[in-house]
Amino acid sequence: MLLLVPTETEASPLREAGIPLEIVGFGPVESALRAAEILSRQRPELAVLAGLAGAYPERGLAPGDLVVATEEVFGDLALCFPEGLRPLSRKLPQRERLSLRGPWLEKAITILEKEGQEVEAGPLVTVCCASRDVARARLLALRHRALAENMEGFGVALAAERAGVPLLELRAISNLLEKPEDPWEIEKALYALKEALLCLWRNLR
């Protein structure tokens, strides 16, 4: 099991807990390139991408809640109009969705729930710019039936697919996109993420 995290913010508490990890970088481009390098070199049996996420409106999520990705969607791969996003032409060679379903996902959910940690499973959306507009957040949530958004998932998932490495993505909610001006509860989210990863580290290897 190889743990991947976007930044030092996520890495610091996990290092203190004794979990070895690699930093893939912030945003969809850097994380994809760095993950491709790491995965091609190490070839782990399983890669776990862990980080923070913003919960979409009306999903019943709160700061500190855990979500796992059943698929990753590249939310900004679209035509952008003032009233919202529209799909690109089907004639274009494009990958918008990547499935993360499989035995590792089911096993991780079972382990976490057995240890008393609640986790929601569903699609996550990767964006190039974090949503600060509630209407945009609702549009992405409804269009993709998604739980939350992040900025690395799709890129890392594509790198993992091309390397032939299964990927599990675990995120902790740090902010609510229906309340974009509220402070992010990063410490609460990082604590929940650390406890869940310690549980997986003990039981998933």
Which characteristics define this entry?
five-stranded mixed barrel; two-stranded antiparallel sheet; 37% helix; alpha/beta; Futalosine hydrolase; 6 helices; 205 residues; single chain; Rossmann fold
Radius of gyration: 16 Å
**Tally of separate domains:** 1
Percentage of residues in strands: 25-35%
Q: Give the class from helix and strand content and strand pairing.
A: alpha/beta
Q: DSSP helix count?
A: 6
Oligomeric form:
single chain
Largest sheet: 5 strands, mixed, barrel
Mean pLDDT across all amino acids:
92
Strand order of the largest sheet: 3-9-8-4-10
How far apart, in Å, are the first and last alpha carbons?
A: 6 Å
CATH domain class: Alpha Beta
CATH topology: Rossmann fold
Structure commentary:
- It contains six helices and ten strands, in the order βαβαβββββαβαβαβα.
- It is an alpha/beta fold.
- It has a single domain (2-85, 94-203), classed as Nucleoside phosphorylase domain (Rossmann fold, 3-Layer(aba) Sandwich).
- The strands form two sheets. It has a five-stranded mixed beta barrel, surrounded by four helices. Strands 5-6 form a two-stranded antiparallel sheet.
